[in-house]
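quick one before i forget lol
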Amino acid sequence: MTIKEAINIAKSELPGIDTAAKECTWLFAKNLSMSAASVIANDDARIDDAVFESFLEQRKRDIPFEYIVNEACFYGYDFFVDNRCLIPRPETELLVELAKRVAQDIDAKSLLDICTGSGAVACTMKKLMPNLSVTASDISQDALEVAKINAQRLEIDINFLLSDLFSNIKNDSFDILTANPPYIQNGYKLEKNVLHEPHLALFGGESGEEIIKAAIDGFYEMGFKAFVCEMGFDQKAPIEAILKSKPASKFGFYKDYAGLDRGFWIIKENR
């Protein structure tokens, strides 16, 4: 069938997916080694029916598009993803932007990224700051395998550690800590496509803040100078209360593209 015919079928058979036409364009661009603009301009070109039918069948089962094409764009880089890791979100690019500024402000030489997942934060920080020594850790060996693929794909040198937060972190001299930890409350009703992502990377406990709290405790107990962390939009109040109870440090919060509270930063005053 032609590209145009396939897109019309996708629109008809995937009525609940507003991005069906766009996804088809990206799918065919990848499959035909063409740009998206070329796909749109040549919509009478023929495509592989089997590729399209597989896409259609998987999307009907709410499998995320990124898992189908094994790729997600983050900060301008194409990351490999599959169901072993969380799909990196655009709002996490804000964490990277802030972490870069903080790292420069404190003249950071080393970074530890916990709950690294696909390695999106760790890999992007290394690309942006090549002289920064970066270590990425995760509780999931499967996720670390994906992160290693991305480090190889981006041709960067990163250290990887299997660790439940700080349990296997032996080096106490990292300058900056970053994290996009699981922070969704257990049992929270998510969209069907999100439920295909690893639950270990999504749910953070009965209140949702347990892992963030443990990360904050570890930050203060170890030799870090600064911490940048993503959080849930409704978690500012409890996290702010925790930070006010900690030793002298500067901290603040940042919002995402929708204007919702999305993360926080901490810089120790006596560093």
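fyi The mean pLDDT is 95.
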